[in-house]
Amino acid sequence: MIRVDRNESGLVLVGNPPTGSFAYFDRDWLPALGQPLPSLLVLAGMLSWCGEPPIRAPGSLEPDTAAALVLLAVAQEAATAVEDLAPESVEVRGSGLIARRVRALVRNDATAASQSFSTPEMPRAIVETTGDPAAILDATRRVANLGVVVLVGETLDSVQMNLYSDVHVRGLTLLGVSPPLDSTEVFGRVPVDDRVIQWCRARLVRVQTGVSLAPDAPWFVLPGGS
User: Fold this and answer.
1) What percent of the chain has pLDDT over 90?
2) Within 13 Å, how many C-alpha atoms sit on residue 73's CB side?
3) Which of 5, 116, 212, 226 could serve as 10's disulfide partner, Cβ 3.0–4.6 Å?
4) What is the DSSP string of the chain?
């Protein structure tokens, strides 16, 4: 089990994935101190999303590219949920790889993945990628009446929500993006060009147990036995 801890230099990881594997995680998945870290595990051509049943990657893909495609597939599904809305009415919360890619897709700009843009005080949709229960609850209260809240990634704890007052009375729609459990959906239908893959790979930071995490990296990989 991999956990997050803190030392004098910042956040560090405790524990290792299995030998020969690679554990990838989005910055927005970082849990509270001492809690298990959700991760995408790649081992011998198989990928497992946060403990879900594994899927097989095409044999020609090396681990970094395969992991990038999985996270990009999640971002694609989240962006599709709000594709009928004006970009300026959609707020995307988070600073990880998935959040940055959703912003780029909402803007229809493959080169804008690291940039945010202003939204109204009460947006018509909020894409929430952090999994923070407080942020999820706040999203249901800040989005406009009849609005949409899209929940992406891994919820870091249970959410204490009154579905009647927080959701039903205001006519909100809550959508959850499911884990990518089908290899065809991930590797056969995600329209991603080489520029996006290279952008993802260039921002992937390799980490080691006990070494502080870079504060501005959108995603990380922890090799087994590091």
Assistant:
1) 42
2) 20
3) 212
4) --EEEEETTEEEEES-PPTT-EEEEEGGG--STTSBPP-EEEETTEEEETTSPPEEPPTT--HHHHHHHHHHHHHHHHHHTTTTS-GGGEEEE-SSHHHHHHHHHHHT-TT-TT------SS-SEEEE-S--HHHHHHHHHHSPTT-EEEE-S--SS-----IIIIIITTT-EEEEPPP---HHHHHHS----HHHHHHHHHTEEE--TTSPPPTT-SEEEEETT-
How high is the pLDDT of residue 161? 67
Token reading at 147 = 């609005």
31-75 pLDDT per residue, tens: 777 788 889 999 988 999 888 888 888 877 899 999 999 999 899
Q: Phi and psi for 3 in degrees, rounded to 5?
A: -125, 165
Give how far the C-alpha of residue 161 lies from the chain's centroid of Cα atoms, to the nearest Å.
Answer: 22
Farthest-apart Cα atoms in the chain, separation: 51
Q: Would you say 38 and 154 are in contact if contact means Cβ atoms under 8 Å apart?
A: yes
User: Which pLDDT score is estimated for 118?
Assistant: 55
Give the chain's residues under pLDDT 70. Answer: 109-120, 155-166, 185, 188-192, 226
Which residues of the chain form CATH 3.40.50.720? 83-176
pTM (two decimals)? 0.88
Query: Cβ contacts of residue 110 below 8 Å, gap of 6+?
Result: 104, 193, 195, 196
**Architecture of the domain delimited by 83-176:** 3-Layer(aba) Sandwich (3.40)
